[in-house]
Specification:
215 residues, single chain, globular, alpha/beta, five-stranded mixed beta sheet
């Protein structure tokens, strides 16, 4: 099967050439340094939404932020893709910050809020429905539906921050004295601004006893 519009793909290659030339002109050693190593201080766990590009939002160059993305910025304890990224970022790259970043207007969160049949993805979204169920009274107290969904976006981020902290990967890092903080942010598509949800965690003493892994 051939591409029905190969010109569009060619545009991407031309964009790439212009970008590479622009970077090389501004910093002739950039790609040589980038190829030699990566030493980011941040792991970004975000949504797959194409409108939420990690590097651009925080104005960092390639190599400065390690990124994992999935639908609705989830950290699920049976998702070995996410856990592998988390372990590599913490144990090998030695990042100092893990940042879970949701965004208002998230289609995954909206789908979880609604009760429509979306097929396979509904199994993934059950995790957000758990958040919705636990916070139903607080969410329903808001009269406006968009406000309720936005609150669910925030609550989902906070829940995923907790999930990050409950992993053995993060707790083992804290046990060995590694400098590591987990944060929760939310991004607004309407103005491009990030909001800190003030749910940062930097030590095992900040999580409930039942989730702690003892040395």
């Amino acid at each position: 099967m051939t591409d029905s519009n190969p010109r569009r793909l060619q545009d991407l290659f031309e964009n790439n050439q212009r970008w590479a030339n622009r970077i090389s002109t501004s910093d002739p050693e950039f790609f040589a340094k980038l190829a030699a190593q990566q030493s980011p201080e941040y792991l970004w766990i975000g949504c797959s939404d194409s409108r939420v590009p990690a590097n651009q939002i925080v104005d960092l160059l390639p190599g400065e932020i390690f990124v994992h993305r999935n639908v609705a910025n989830m950290v699920v304890h049976t998702d070995f893709n996410c856990l592998t990224v988390l372990q590599y970022a913490i144990d090998v790259l030695r990042v100092k910050h893990v940042i879970v970043v949701g965004h208002y207007g998230c289609g995954g969160v909206r789908a979880a809020y609604e009760n429509a049949d979306n097929g396979l993805i509904d199994n993934w979204l059950r995790n957000i429905k758990d958040v919705l169920h636990r916070s139903r009274a607080r969410i329903n107290a808001l009269a406006d539906e968009e406000a309720r969904i936005n609150l669910l976006c925030e609550l989902n981020v906070s829940a995923q921050v907790a999930n990050v902290c409950h992993t053995t990967i993060v707790q083992n890092a804290w046990q060995r004295g590694q400098n590591l903080t987990v944060h929760g942010w939310v991004y607004s598509l309407e103005d491009g601004r990030l909001k800190d949800l003030n749910c940062s965690v930097d030590g095992i003493d900040q999580i409930p006893d039942v989730y702690r892994v003892l040395p």
